[in-house]
C-alpha cells in the first residue's frame, strides 16, 4: 500500500526549487509579499475613500442646490403675489397711474406683510417713479421683460441691495411697471446659515449666465481651507445647478475640490497607521517564524525516524485490517446466501403443507372444507411473501405493492364466486418482513371476505384495493360497493360475516394482525363497506417500545 504522506527526506529532495529553500528564506519571501500587499491595499482603500469623499461632496452640493432653489422660488412667488396686488392698486388699463397718499399707504401695508420685502413701487413706461411704499427714491432703469412678462434684476432700495421683480401694468403698450424689491439679505442669511462643511459658493444666475446674486459676494468659496485660493473657482470644482421654478433663473452651488481633498488628506494618517501597524506585525511574526523554522529543521531528523517507524506499523496494521474485512465480507455473503436458502426452503415447505391440506380437504364435508380453504389461503399468502423475500435484493425487505398485486391476482381467480371485478391502485412501498406478513394476511382476509360475501345472489360489483402514501405513513384501503355490513353488527371489533354464518374469526384476525403491524383499523359504511388501515412510518419494534 502506498502512503498518502510524503516523507520528510522526499520533501527535501523535491524537484521544485521552493521545497529546497531553507525555511527562513521562505519566511522572508512571505513577509515581503505581505508587506507589499498591505501597502498596496492601504493605497487602494485610500483612493476609494477619496472617490467616496468627492461623491459625498457632490451629493451635499445637490442637496444644497435644491434647498437654495426651493427657497428662492418661494421668495419669488411671494414677490409675484405682491406685484399682482400692486398692479391692482394701479387701476385699470385706461386709468392714469395713481400718486395719492391712500394708495401709498396701502402699498406700504402690502410691503410690511412680507418681512423680506423692502419696498413696492409703481413706475411709468419710461421708468420714472410715480409711487413708492418708501420715501422717494431715484428713478431706475427697468430691466427687460422675460417672455412671461416678469422681469428680475438687482438694484438698491432704501440703501439696501435688493433683487427687483418688475411686472408690466395692463395697457398696450404697457402704461408702466409694478416693481417689488426683495431684500438680498433674505437670500444671503439663509445661505450663510447652511453648514456645508466645505469651501463653497451659492449663486443665483440669470438665463444668460450672469450672476444675479452670489454668496460670498467676492465670488470665491466660503469656508476655504488654509492654502486654498478663496478668490477664484477652478475648473475641477464640484458644481451643481438647480432650476428655480419657471422663472428662468437657476441656483448654482460650487464646492471647491481642494477643500474636499484637504479633509480627505486629514484622514490619510489612518491608512498610514494601519499599514505601519500591519508591517510591524508582519515583521514580528516573521522574526518568530524564522526562529521557529530553525528549531523545526533541527527536529526534522527525529521526526523522520519516527515517521519511518510509524509507516512500518501502519503497513502491518493495514494488512491485518484488509484480511479482517475480507473475512467479514465473506461472512456477510454467506449469511445472505443462507438467508435466501432458508426463505426458499420455507416457501417450499409451505407449498408442501398446502398440497397436503388440499388432499385432506378432498375427504371432508363442505362445511369443514371452508375452514381448510381459509387456512390454505393464509398459508399461500405467507408462501408468496417468502418467495418475494427470496427474489428481493434486500433479504429482509420487499416491495409491498408487488405482494398486493400477486396476492389479489390469486384471490380473484380462486375466491370469486360472483365474478366481481377487482381493481388495484398501489404505490411502491419497501417494507420490512416484520410488517409485510401481518399486513398481507390482513389484506387477504378483507379482500377474500369481500369477494365471498359482499355480492350475494350473483350480483355484479367491484372490490377496490388502494395503497397510498401520506405525510406520516401509508394508508391501505379495501372497499366494495356490495350489500354492506349487517345492521346488527355489535362493533368494529366484532364483525359477523356478511353471510351471517361465520363467527367473526376473520375480523378478529384482521384486528390482531393490524395491531401486530402497528396499524389502526377503521370500518365505514358508504355505499358498501370501507376498511382503512392507517400504517405509520414508525417501525413496529419502535412502536412496541413506545407502547411499553
TrEMBL record:
Residues 481-503 are annotated as: Disordered. Gene3D superfamilies: Histidine kinase-like ATPase, C-terminal domain (3.30.565.10), PAS domain (3.30.450.20). This is Sensor histidine kinase. The keyword Transmembrane applies. GO terms for molecular function: kinase activity. Pfam families: HATPase_c, HisKA_2. PANTHER family: SENSOR HISTIDINE KINASE, SENSOR HISTIDINE KINASE PDTAS. Residues 307-345 form a coiled coil.
